[in-house]
Design brief:
heterodimer, A: alpha+beta, Heat Shock Protein 90, five-stranded antiparallel β-sheet, 5 strands, 35% helix, B: alpha/beta, Transcription Regulator spoIIAA, two-stranded parallel sheet
């Protein structure tokens, strides 16, 4: 089963522990330490946004990808589109989280589904093939 | 957060090392630590050499502090630091006047 985490809207207390667990999973799966810090930032920023601005239920799942690890975050809110997110000013104190994640991710896809909002991120962390089969229960 | 986040005096400046992880879950603790640092118009040097993680909520705190203190705030973020990345991707290295080592930050 793919590693996953659950959060409550407006409750940021679980973010730190979840990020540590997420990073530990990736460290075991990846070929190197490269970009683990970037992946941790992506996870932390996008989960914080979902908790602050989204609605329950909020979930994060670390999925297998073709070559790179994939993070899927879902919440029950109305979501947003990139068009409505202006680039933050240099000294702005808000609105940086998604911009940071966008710069660090290989790709980010936003989807408004019938009952939830989904963000799918291809992380900049390549997965070791043998580890992927073991971690995700593949034969 | 880490209990070693205690300030000390050096070359007439107040140095505050921040050890551990700071994120949206404990930003209030960080603001409390910063609020306990004596002002007195002196230079405040926040040393992030041993900081393992910060997120954008911490950047917001540091930006607000920079507005308040201006030239009386310097940040130390070594090139090999784990938290250097977020300052780079946010374009804040120059905005916040970040230096690579403590000696460069002190008067």
């Amino acid at each position: 089963m793919a590693p996953n985490w659950h959060f409550l809207a407006k409750d940021v207390r679980g973010v730190t522990t979840a990020r540590r667990e997420f990073t530990a999973h990736l460290r075991r799966l990846s070929r190197s330490e490269a970009n683990l810090e970037a992946a941790a930032l992506i996870f932390g920023e996008l989960i914080a946004n979902a908790i602050k601005y989204g609605d329950d239920p909020i979930t994060a799942t670390l999925e297998r990808g073709e070559q790179y690890a994939r993070l899927v975050i879902e919440d029950g809110g109305a979501g947003f589109s990139c068009e409505h997110l202006p680039a933050p000013e240099p000294t702005a104190t808000g609105g940086r989280g998604f911009a940071i994640a966008t710069k660090l991710a290989r790709s980010i896809r936003l989807e408004q589904l019938s009952d939830r909002f989904r963000i799918t991120v291809e992380l900049p962390v390549a997965i070791e093939e043998a580890h992927r089969r073991a971690a995700f229960g593949e034969a | 957060m880490d209990e070693r986040s205690e300030s000390y005096e050096r070359n007439g400046a107040c140095v505050l090392p921040l050890a551990g992880e700071f994120d949206v879950g404990n930003t209030a603790d960080l603001e409390r630590i910063l609020g306990e640092v004596p002002d007195g118009g002196r230079l405040l040097v926040i040393d992030l050499s041993n900081t393992a993680y910060i997120d954008s909520s911490v950047l917001a705190v540091l930006i607000r502090l920079k507005r308040q203190r201006g030239e009386n705030l310097r940040l130390v973020v070594p090139r090999e630091s784990k938290v250097r990345l977020i300052f780079v991707v946010s374009g804040l290295l120059e905005v916040l006047g970040i230096v690579d080592d403590l000696e460069s930050a002190l008067p």
